[in-house]
User: Which sequence fits this backbone?
């Protein structure tokens, strides 16, 4: 179970669009609220194009055990910095929180090796969610399966799996 | 005939009960009070002519409840907080405990006398705190009492830290836990001079 922490970047799914705010499911005990003004270049006239069911990559600005968490899609200087609505293609899947932290260490081997296999786009959410998009659906699924299996595989097993895949 | 009776009932009820909810059952000629137990006493001449208006009084089974007035200092416990306000339950009015608690709201802008933009509810109150506040509005049927802590003598009196120890106030905005020595932010009420031990 994920516990929201201030400053964490997470992937959320928009569940409710209510006037000024969106409710976003981040996998915690409560849904986070996201104001429509918390996007780059958003004003009261220029509303962001967010629908129910969209994937959002954002960070928490308020996250404590007494209140409902609040998230935004801009950083402290007002720029998006990679945050915002994630595109409609690609695949979202869940892994354990520990694996996410392992994958986010600098120069993680798994990601480098995967990168040599196929080019792909990847977004990590600290709430255990990963979004992947590669050129074809098959490649996307392969990347997703490898990441999910990395939890249980040792480094050798991983090398073997990569070797098999790169032969193809 | 029934119309005269019910208008008299309504005036009587509104005068006597303050905020308590009431309904009246026009066809049976009895008066009921929502949220409490009440009997009615009515003159026997209910079917008399409009010239003789019957007197109906509502007598509650329990002794009369003290109600918060505007300007009263109340002691309340914080139930939940929000980024805009804190919801509280009013436990004592002055020094009399209440039999049934009322609900109150302390808005962000009423929690201190500083500018509202600098105030954060999370840094003023937490759930479980005991707070001294003043009633600024009775609200209407649906909303709660509106309370304010915008004075030096109002604010958090008793608070427990994350380590579940009662904290000691060290300034108007900080309290310290005696076990872990960590400081937590609250809007602290100034201790009355007669209660200070020197």
Assistant:
């Amino acid at each position: 179970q994920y516990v929201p922490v201030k400053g964490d970047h997470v992937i959320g799914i928009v569940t409710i669009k209510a006037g000024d705010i969106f409710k976003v499911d981040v996998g915690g005990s409560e849904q986070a609220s996201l104001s429509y003004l918390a996007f780059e270049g958003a004003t009261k006239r220029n509303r962001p194009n967010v629908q129910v069911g969209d994937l959002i990559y954002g960070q928490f600005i308020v996250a404590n055990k007494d209140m409902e968490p609040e998230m935004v899609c801009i950083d402290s200087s007002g720029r998006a910095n990679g945050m915002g609505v994630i595109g409609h293609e690609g695949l979202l899947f869940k892994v354990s929180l520990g694996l996410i932290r392992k994958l986010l260490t600098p120069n993680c081997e798994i990601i480098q090796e995967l990168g040599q296999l196929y080019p792909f786009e990847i977004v990590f959410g600290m709430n255990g969610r990963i979004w992947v998009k590669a050129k074809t659906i098959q490649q996307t699924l392969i990347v997703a399966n490898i990441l999910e299996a990395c939890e249980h595989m040792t480094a050798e097993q991983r090398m073997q799996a990569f070797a098999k895949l790169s032969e193809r | 005939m029934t119309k005269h009776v019910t208008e008299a009932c309504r005036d009587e009820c509104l005068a006597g009960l303050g905020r308590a909810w009431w309904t009246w059952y026009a066809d049976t000629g009895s008066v009921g009070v929502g949220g409490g137990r009440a009997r009615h006493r009515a003159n026997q001449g209910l079917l008399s002519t409009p010239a003789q208006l019957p007197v109906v009084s509502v007598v509650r089974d329990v002794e009369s409840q003290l109600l918060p007035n505007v300007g009263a200092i109340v002691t309340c416990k914080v139930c939940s907080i929000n980024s805009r306000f804190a919801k509280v339950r009013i436990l004592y009015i002055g020094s009399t405990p209440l039999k049934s608690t009322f609900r109150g709201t302390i808005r962000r802008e009423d929690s201190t006398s500083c500018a509202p933009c600098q105030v954060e509810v999370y840094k003023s109150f937490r759930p479980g705190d005991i707070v001294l506040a003043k009633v600024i509005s009775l609200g209407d049927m649906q909303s709660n009492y509106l309370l304010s802590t915008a004075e030096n003598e109002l604010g958090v009196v008793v608070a427990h830290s994350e380590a579940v120890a009662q904290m000691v106030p060290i300034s108007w905005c900080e309290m310290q836990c005696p076990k872990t020595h960590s400081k937590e932010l609250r809007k602290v009420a100034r201790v009355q001079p007669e209660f200070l031990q020197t």
